[in-house]
Amino acid sequence: MGRKYSMRVLILGLATLVSQINLGWIVRGLHPNILEVQFTFSAERFWAIVDAWGPVGTAIYLSHFPWDWIHILLYAMLGIAICRRNGLFSRLPDVPRRLWALVLPLAGLMDMLENAAQLYLLAGASNGGGFVVPASALCSTLKWSLVLAFFGACLWMWLAPLNGQASVRAGATARAGTQR
Asked: Can you tell me the distance from the alpha carbon of 62 to that of 160, in angstroms, rounded to the nearest whole number?
């Protein structure tokens, strides 16, 4: 891995970590916590959480959104940087590597849709939530699934050489050269 790559990933990784800590700090006092509202598929439960927060908790929750938009941009850029040609996924052929580079930006898109749905609900633009609450929860579930899949793949790419496995690209090249 090149020095430029390492520095870019390091800077984006640290910025994303600081951003995540900042978001956690902002919403730390919310009970029920932010994950409960993200994974709530029921409009009744969503509004019960908002009621439990009260006006102060709801204001705290709303105050995290501007920072969350920045956070989305940071982690999407980090995913792309990690998958660069000379990065952690460099063992993969171009197409799978480029597909992996889209995973965190896609998670970011789900995060933006989730945020938009929740802001829509909290602005009072919806009649109780209807399909908006389950749609928001679905976006959140997809977001977290993509994030976990990406970091699982990163861990696998990082640990695979430690397990004595040949590189993915070398294996693909060897298979392509064999006749059936």
From this structure: 42
The whole-number average pLDDT for the span 59-64 is: 97
Q: What's the chain's length in residues? A: 180
Report yes or no: 62 and 122 within 8 Å, Cβ to Cβ.
yes
Amino acid (1-letter code) at residue 129: G
Cβ of 73: how many Cβ atoms within 10 Å?
16
The answer to whether the CB of 12 falls within 8 A of the CB of 70 is: no
In whole angstroms, give the CA distance from residue 132 to residue 120.
9
pLDDT of residue 110 exceeding 60: yes
171: left (phi over 0), alpha (psi -120 to 50) or beta: alpha
Distance of CA 3 to the CA centre of its chain: 26
pLDDT tens digits, residue range 113-138?
999 999 999 998 767 778 999 999 99
Structure tokens that stand for 20 in this block: 């995540």
Collect all residues with Cβ–Cβ distance below 8 Å to 133 and sequence separation of at least 6. Answer: 40, 41, 42, 43, 46, 117, 121
In 26-166, at which residue ranges do the beta strands (DSSP E only) sit? Answer: none
**Two tokens at 56?**
């102060």
Q: What is the DSSP letter of 163?
A: G
